[in-house]
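User: Before I run my own analysis I want an independent prediction to cross-check against. Here's the chain; please return only the structure tokens and, at the end, one sentence I can use as a sanity check.
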Amino acid sequence: MLTKVVIAGRPNVGKSTLFNRLIGRKKAIIHETPGTTRDRNDYEVSWKDKKFIVTDTAGWSKDVFVFSVDMSRQLDIAIEQSDIVLFVVDGKMGIHPADLQIAQQIRLSKKKTILVVNKIDTQAEEIKGYEFYELGFDDIVFVSANHGRSIHDLLDKIWDNIKYDRRTKKTQELLKIILVGKPNVGKSSFINSVTKEKRSIVHDIPGTTRDSLTAHICVNNKEYIIIDTAGLHRGSKTKDDMEYLSTLSTNYAIEDADVAVLVADASQGIGETEVKIARLLMEKNKPVIVAVNKWDLIEEKEEAAKYFEEELRERIKFMSWADIIFISAKTGQRLERIFQEAEIVFKQYTKQLTQEELNEVVRDALARKPYTSKGKTLKLKEYSQVAVKPPVFIFSVNDMDLVHFSYERFLENCLRDKFGFRGTPIVLKFRKYYRKKVEQ
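Assistant: Structure tokens:
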């Protein structure tokens, strides 16, 4: 197992900025509102010859608001499950009463702790940070997460506290599965159910999950990375900057994922928002599984399943290749099947046909249905598969004017009939064929 490093501290000291620095990308939402990060967020980091998991957490706060108890509980759980704690404080503000309380709580855990004095932009400002030695931690690093100052020094300290494990070099890339859907369809409940813990804060206020949350989980002795996203709202305009940031984070997370699970609410059906999300996934060429959640609440399930199937195929015709799985995040019904299906779908997403296999399909397609228009016949002169993730095919034709969308769809159906490509988009591209000149 990889070493787990948790980032802890009160709100607004720069924990999410530090998290983004350590993982080398803008993943966590950064905002001046305390409590922006409400859930734990895991990410795998590689430094020199060692790997570790870094976890961003919600900040501790004594303010009376609906999530304060949940956020404190999240931090307690994260520290308990960690090997190293990065205790982040604000170097410009100095010691805050909450810092003393958090320091006491971390000391009780007896976990290896590195005190990270943040917002120290220059070496001269390090003098301000000396007062933090009063917190009782020997390992201190003065950094500026915003400017990247001394981040390598911090990574070196983490590296020094990780036992070298040869097995980490052989670690395979884990399948990344992203949950997408409008607010309150049960994405966070899904994560809590498969992780067997209250990892994500669940509340009936739409938009509770502001950031995309990443978790490492194990299902049937196999590890996965599962990403919960902030809910996408209907309409093109965002109500405020926080919602806008959430949407950006969701879109970025989709880019990073291997398989997308479009979560719909069984009691609401397939609506405008689901269609919008499906189009977004198509634009990003992602393989998709449709998960209809809250199935435990539906009566006469056989009729309802038939209705959902018909509604999906009608409203999302462009994604007819996606499978539907009826689940209940609350009871755990069929959740394991999502991961089984994700394995199958990813193999289809990365499938590479041989030229002989492609030749067979094209020859059969041309024999079954040659395309003729205005006395001219479409000829596929050259063709090959040029990419995976998704599978991309290029066809060189005699006349581009003869390339009709109906024939493109026919060729796609021929490929799917022969080779499946279950759950994944496939891309067909056409170009004018030019005879290569033979050199004398």
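Sanity check: Residues 70 and 194 are 19 Å apart (CA to CA).
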